[in-house]
Amino acid sequence: MSKSPKVLSVLGMPVHVMTNYPGWLLERLQQGRGTHVITLNAEMTIQAERNGSLAQVIQNAELVIPDGAGVVLYLRWLLWQKVQRCPGIELAEKLLRELGQKQTGAKVFFYGGAPEVAAKAAEFCQQQISGLNIVGTHSGYHSQEEEEKLRQTLTQSQPQLIFVGLGVPRQELWIAQNRHLCPQAVWIGVGGSFDIWSGTKNRAPAWLGNNNLEWLYRLYQEPWRWRRMLALPEFAVKAFVYHLTARSVMS
Length: 251
Ligand code: UDP
Description:
50% of the residues lie in helices and 16% in strands. The chain is an alpha/beta fold. The chain has one domain (6-228): Rossmann fold (3-Layer(aba) Sandwich), CATH 3.40.50. The protein has a 6-stranded parallel beta sheet, sandwiched between helices. A two-stranded antiparallel sheet has the order 1-2. It binds uridine-5'-diphosphate. Uridine-5'-diphosphate binds at residues 112-114, 140-141, 165-168, 191-192, 194-195.
């Protein structure tokens, strides 16, 4: 069995550090060990400060990966930790590729996004990765009645890998409330990944991501996010103050 990851702390939120996230998750998936994966960035950390339910879900998750540049720079510059950024969308893609290559037949489900987006994303992934077994998709905009049907579908089909793209914090809270339906599954909140895979939106060019500037591209593509992005400077100030006053290495 793979060893437990090292746990660091960013503003009181855990971050698990290891070299091979997809390998660790694949092992848990094959062993049927239910897992909730959180893709932590600065914005989510600030939201968690104001939203106790979100903070609790993050603290209870089996895996919290350093998704955002702010989180990674904090761990590198203030805690002197060697940490590689692991964007959630890339982790999701790697997992899908590994499942396809290994021909495990593991059942995958996509939930979230505007009508047709999850279905288009699934079609794209299925075309790109042979051997992938996406058993169902569901849009993220629906009535309570439809949601009940979705719960029944998940209970009956028992997917082993479930991507939920409802945005933060909706997707994290939804997973926490519903993971008992498929207790052996790996659940990941994937934000806008279905929008990217379906071709509805573009991801930032790699050179921006490599220079920790992916947020700038998102702001250019979706200028209405400016208010949400005020969380970034707030995170920088709070992280510095927190670092001066708290013990940051948890284990
Ligand atoms: N979304 C959804 N249902 C909702 C609200 C949002 O399915 O009630 C979807 C939306 O269509 C988009 C995703 O959630 O695909 C949110 O993407 P975003 O990139 O904003 O995620 P975040 O930055 O919060 O991770």
